[in-house]
Amino acid sequence: xxxxxxxxxxxxxxxxxxxxxxxxxxxxxxxxxxxxxxxxxxxxxxxxxxxxxxxxxxxxxxxxxxxxxxxxxxxxxxxxxxxxxxxxxxxxxxxxxxxxxxxxxxxxxxxxxxxxxxxxxxxxxxxxxxxxxxxxxxxxxxxxxxxxxxxxxxxxxxxxxxxxxxxxxxxxxxxxxxxxxxxxxxxxxxxxxxxxxxxxxxxxxxxxxxxxxxxxxxxxxxxxxxxxxxxx
Length: 232
What we know:
Elements: E1 7-9, E2 12-14, H1 17-26, H2 46-57, E3 59-67, E4 77-78, E5 85-89, E6 94-105, H3 108-123, H4 130-135, E7 139-140, E8 147-157, E9 166-177, E10 180-191, E11 194-206, E12 209-210, H5 213-230
Antiparallel strand pairs: 1-2, 2-4, 3-6, 3-8, 5-6, 7-12, 8-11, 9-10, 10-11
């Protein structure tokens, strides 16, 4: 599932602009301009790093991921050894910190399903969830520089006797502090209609400004046009 989105030599992993951009658009349905091949400040999707860790180490009942830095095509990541707590680094800088506990499953069906369902959920939160959520407090992101930074995510599974859980949104929150804010997107994991776990994604927003419906409409139209044009 992931082999075409990175290359590995020994314990070193690199991700090209083409690979990061393709993962964003093909797997995550994420059309953030930061993931475009020709982006001035290209950034590998955080959800691709998350997916690589799950693909390597399997699914634990409790998992927490903290995103510490932006990865571009020049970064050589060192794939760590499995442990309850470890960092994904280039030998110097930390890009992702991982904490895991509880039982662990290496079932490929479960891993592939959770990767697919989570990254689709994660990639489609902007703009159709984030913008209305901020709009409830009469604010919006800066349309010329929409700075929404992926801070962390966590998953808490009740048990691992599952195969293909689906995700559904639950109780999003937005905390405003001047021109900055914090977004919390909660989700439930369900299998055969039964709640089997919960999770959350945290993001930081900067450059917040007063809400303007016309600007919001233009931003969403622009995003949808990009998606229609660039979708593989």
